[in-house]
Amino acid sequence: LTLVVYRIHLVEFDFCAAKCEKCRQISKTFGDVIRMIQRFSLLVRRVLNRNPIDKIKDDFLSIAAHEIRTPITVLKARAQLAKIFYDQGRFTGDIVEHTLDSLVSESDRLARLCTNIIDIVRLESSSLQIFPAKLELGALVNSIVELFKARSKIHEFEILLDLKEMPIYVWADKDRVSQILFTLFGNAVRYSPAGGKISVKLSLAQDKASISIKDQGLGIEKEKLFNIFARYYQAHNSGLKGQSGLGLGLYLAKNLLLEMGGDISVKSEGVGLGSEFTISLPLVARERLGEVS
Amino acid sequence: MTGKQILIVEDDAAIMETLTIFLSYEGFRVLKAQNIKQAFNLIETTKPDLVLLDYMLQDDTAEPIVDFLRKRHPERIPILLLTAAEDPEGKRMLVDADAVIPKPFDLDLLLQHIVH
Predict the structure, then answer these.
(1) Which of A70, A81, A217 sits opposite B12 (nearest CB)?
(2) Which of A78, A102, A121, A282 has a CA positioned 20 to 30 A from the CA of residue A30?
(3) ipTM metric
């Protein structure tokens, strides 16, 4: 990680002598990435210093390192590509736009991974905090869908949104619900085929509201469905085989939802047949609605 | 190797796109597979000059792809393995790849491996 930080610093400072606006934006993005990596390194050092590494911690660190290397790979390669094009006077127009979109998208992904990793450490040490409040679910889903739609320039996909039941008020922590939705949308987008459709539906059932996110991606083997929310699932799946990138985010999503009185479930007809994740959250109770209105 | 055909097997869309831009810029023709089924189809219908293969795919590891490639094309097509795993050399030996490139990789180093 130190080497990556060093190389990103090199790119950041060598990038553009004139410090034009576009390059300043890229520089800022790299700066954010450096801070995230430093924060992550510090956290890992703290964990290592506090307790001896047992098998669970070893699994956790292996998965965390594996997941974090993927966005770093893209950031590093994109920066190198930008430098190649810049040196040839071709770093203009669409190439700049596309590079910035990709850098921002991968920086966001890295930031979310770091947040998830930090939250899992807190969850394991029973120090994770949840701040529930009255939350209009449809508006939140809509805003996150809009953010993902903006990214469809980088990876082609279509989101079909069904919010007929709006408005729906739930009692939940807005930041945590956003975090969970980013994990689910992120997985749906990342593993969808080009041009794939992602259906999002908000509905009511008794005292719960639910959001389902259905994709046309790679799907999940039936025998793996049961374990998919288990702690560090990948590591227990014979040497990191299959379902890469899903282990930490889904484990955290399940636990965050349980903390908020909700839950998560998954359906898939099998490999190649897409997946459907459904989360549920408690509706605002009538008396609670009176308290907060 | 310029002008030659490279098959990229990578499940991460952002890495796939970055590799495609870079290798196309360097003059290679690029074939893309995001999963094992697509990789099998391309290996069946084409004969790439080199395969750039991510070790851990969404539906399995790279092992079945290497087995299929070796059977379909007995003349040894070079395989460069990409991996974010802790023990890259161990993964290379596991699938009998010709070389392994750990993630995050350097584009210059990647190009050197491809050319040589």
Answers:
(1) A70
(2) A121
(3) 0.90
